[in-house]
């Protein structure tokens, strides 16, 4: 009989067993009594490994991300690795490519490796089979999700308020006199849906009625941004400002505007998202929402550390983004196409 068997028989998570063994007051008395009876029934004494699981001394954390080469995901995972390294933990990094089969494979692999906890970076963990797999893993190991709020025992989320960030872009552009604002949407993840919601809310708050007609669907990356703005022009959609959900897409929009003979930052304002290094490398430099990736990563580490110590932090922690203004946004000139 091991700690996993105890948790399974009691119908609780490893973290709850940890709290009981640590004497934490944050366990319902009825749950504590049930667990103690099971421990006594099986004459359970934690092995060295189980003590490691309970007291957080195995010092290995699994991190799943889509692609560490991505500017945003790379920044978040680096912050996680650095924070755990300072605490003496080893981080096992898995690149999934956003492919469900690989995500499931790595979840199973990390479970068999008996890591102390798992952090999932990004909102790509969004199909039903994967959600059930995450809940199954969380029955044994605490799971922290970044930018994805999944309900379940032993699952915590750190979420950037991306809707507010996009709404801030619309409010800024509206204050500059722009009325014909379009949104170029390059993904359909949960993150993308929150951003789209923020665009609609921002347009409504600004008294702009054409939010639905102003959404242009496109592909990812710089080519997606180029194609999105070219498609808007082809469809005859009037615009003097473009909001995007990603700096890379915004960089493509800037290139696309130049192809159309329109001057980005002067004739057409453009906003990005994530405030990555790319935002300071475009011409003009990009006004972009700082989604605080370092803070996201460090907050995830703090929450997981608290869980491993037997605490029960809030299920969802919200991180507030900030719009950073640069050269790509300016007052409406009166010219639109």
From TrEMBL:
One of its GO terms (molecular function) is transcription cis-regulatory region binding. PROSITE patterns: HTH_LACI_1, HTH_LACI_2. Residues 1-55 form the HTH lacI-type domain. Keywords: DNA-binding, Transcription, Transcription regulation. This is HTH lacI-type domain-containing protein. It comes from Marispirochaeta aestuarii.
